[in-house]
């Protein structure tokens, strides 16, 4: 389960007492295992009811909530009396089509009991890849949230065919929830799983595993998850780390916590909001005089948020310089069709906000057309005067520079096809017309169509840097 929350807009006034009522948006993600029984495929209505009750409480407190929910295939298995998830893509899509109706109907019944309207939104990667459709979806979310509706989001499995085009599927609903969080500009993304938090070791194997409460930066931590023998990954945890990396890059605080008690979300949100008025991000803050709790008017839940620690969870702090909406879309909304290798000078020019000129291009990999998305990879020339570079047999044909390995630094929408870029690579822009017979642009990619990754460090704040080792 994942829950997205957005905080108060400038138009809303904060109460002089510490209150949770003024947040303006939220997103939750539910995994199939959280809401569907693994063997019987029956919906876990007790958990779903708690999710619904928690969501309605958040809405009544002034939050705007979006739920990203899996479970369509599982519901389809139950409805059609199928024991095992089929391997056939078409059968899975058919079951998803059957199950999606029942999943949304169940949500609608439970929310209707509490007089809360909901909406269904089904997305595919293609909906995100097309900029116009992306903005239309964004506008639909905004209007629904303004109307007080809770959108229920899922991937449109019926038409998302990974075998036809890899870009059509998100890969997992954790990724979908992170992209949705960026789309609605949420403040919080809650990723619900079967453990309380992220641990320094696998808690199912090591009894001395210690929870990690705060992660300031994710990149090295994500590498730990993907390494052989990592103790951090526990059934789907690696995809949640990836989702957290995407969401925090756009400024969304991301929280991992246990799915079986969704009511914990309210306590965690209260704790995090109360902490904003404290000086120590790792302890219960002292309340400033101007924000002192009015004990005569405050509710017990308001007092609790500053008097005790929250339920177990791991929170990933947002990037203090978040990626802008279009830059996020370029980096994570589009599937690259190929790779352009550039030299270090071109990379420095891009950092300095200049466009990508053909003179900085070393080589091209893959087949892509005009206006397609490509990876940008930095490789080092053999010498300042040379246009030659080495191929690495260990990297599938990617360029290997002298003293450094090729490094992907971003994505771009290109002005020329792969064939055309091959012809003009390393040349001056004034030669484009001679080489191609036309000159559409002096740039291989305009700077506004380039989005660069940030080089980051990662250090868990608790239990400490010494617990999760990095190679830095």
Describe the 3D structure.
It contains 15 helices and 18 strands. Strands 1, 2, 3, 4, 5, 6, 9, 10 and 11 form a 9-stranded mixed beta sheet that branches. It has a 5-stranded mixed beta sheet with strand order 13-12-14-17-18, with helices on both faces. A hairpin with a 7-residue loop joins strand 15 and strand 16 (399-400). It is globular and about 70 Å long. It has helices at residues 32-35, 45-60, 72-80, 89-112, 125-129, 131-146, 173-184, 219-226, 237-249, 264-275, 300-307, 325-333, 344-351, 418-424, 432-436; strands at 2-6, 25-30, 65-69, 118-123, 150-155, 188-193, 198-199, 211-212, 214-215, 253-258, 314-316, 338-342, 361-366, 373-378, 390-391, 399-400, 407-413, 450-452. It has 472 residues and is α/β, with parallel strands linked by helices.
How is this structure best summarized?
This protein has 472 residues and is of the alpha/beta class.
Descriptive terms for the model:
about 15% strand; alpha/beta; 15 helices; single chain; 18 strands; disordered C terminus; five-stranded mixed sheet; about 475 residues
Number of strands: 18
Which structural class do the helices and strands define? alpha/beta
Estimate the strand proportion.
15-25%
- Tell me the major beta sheet: 9 strands, mixed
Shape: globular
* Gyration radius from CA atoms, angstroms: 24 Å
Query: Any low-confidence stretches, pLDDT <50, length ≥5?
Result: 8-24, 162-168, 222-235, 279-306, 390-404, 456-472
Give the helix level as a range of percent. 25-40%
Alpha-carbon distance between the termini?
33 Å
Number of helices: 15
Name the average pLDDT: 76
């Amino acid at each position: 389960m994942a829950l997205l929350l957005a905080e108060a807009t400038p138009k809303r006034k904060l109460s002089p007492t510490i209150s949770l009522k003024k947040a303006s948006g939220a997103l939750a993600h539910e995994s199939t295992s959280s809401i569907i029984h693994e063997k019987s495929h029956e919906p876990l209505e007790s958990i779903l009811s708690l999710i619904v009750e928690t969501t309605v409480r958040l809405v009544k407190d002034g939050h705007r909530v979006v739920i990203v929910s899996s479970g369509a295939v599982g519901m389809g298995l139950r409805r059609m009396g199928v024991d095992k998830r089929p391997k056939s893509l078409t059968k899975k899509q058919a079951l998803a089509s059957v199950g999606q109706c029942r999943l949304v109907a169940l949500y609608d019944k439970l929310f209707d009991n509490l007089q809360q309207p909901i909406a269904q939104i089904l997305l595919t990667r293609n909906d995100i890849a097309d900029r116009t459709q992306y903005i239309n979806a964004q506008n639909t979310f905004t209007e629904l949230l303004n109307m007080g509706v809770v959108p229920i989001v899922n991937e449109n499995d019926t038409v998302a065919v990974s075998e036809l085009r890899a870009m059509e599927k998100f890969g997992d609903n954790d990724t979908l929830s992170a992209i949705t969080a960026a789309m609605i500009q949420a403040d919080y993304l809650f990723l619900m799983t079967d453990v309380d938090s992220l641990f320094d070791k696998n808690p199912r194997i090591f009894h001395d595993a210690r929870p990690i409460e705060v992660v300031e930066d994710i990149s090295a931590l994500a590498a730990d998850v993907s390494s052989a023998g990592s103790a951090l990954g526990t059934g789907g945890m690696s995809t949640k780390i990836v989702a957290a990396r995407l969401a925090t890059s756009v400024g969304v605080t991301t929280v991992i916590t246990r799915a079986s008690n969704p009511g914990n979300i309210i306590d965690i949100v209260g704790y995090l909001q109360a902490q904003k008025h404290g000086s120590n991000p790792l302890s219960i803050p002292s309340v400033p005089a101007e924000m002192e709790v009015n004990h005569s008017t405050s509710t017990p839940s308001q007092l609790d948020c500053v008097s005790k620690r929250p339920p177990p969870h791991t929170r990933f702090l947002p990037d203090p310089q978040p990626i802008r909406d279009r830059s996020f879309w370029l980096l994570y909304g589009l599937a690259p069709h190929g790779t352009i290798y550039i030299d270090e000078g071109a990379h420095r020019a891009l950092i300095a906000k200049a466009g990508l000129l053909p003179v900085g291009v070393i080589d091209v990999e893959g087949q892509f057309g005009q206006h397609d998305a490509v990876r940008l990879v930095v490789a080092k020339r053999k010498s300042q005067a040379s246009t030659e570079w080495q191929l690495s047999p260990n990297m599938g044909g990617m360029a290997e520079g002298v003293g450094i390995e090729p490094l992907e630094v971003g994505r771009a929408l290109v002005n020329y096809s792969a064939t055309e870029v091959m012809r003009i690579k390393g040349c001056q822009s004034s030669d484009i017309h001679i080489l191609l017979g036309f000159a559409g642009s002096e740039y291989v990619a305009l700077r506004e169509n380039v989005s660069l990754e940030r080089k980051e460090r990662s250090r868990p704040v608790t239990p400490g840097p010494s617990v999760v080792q990095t190679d830095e």
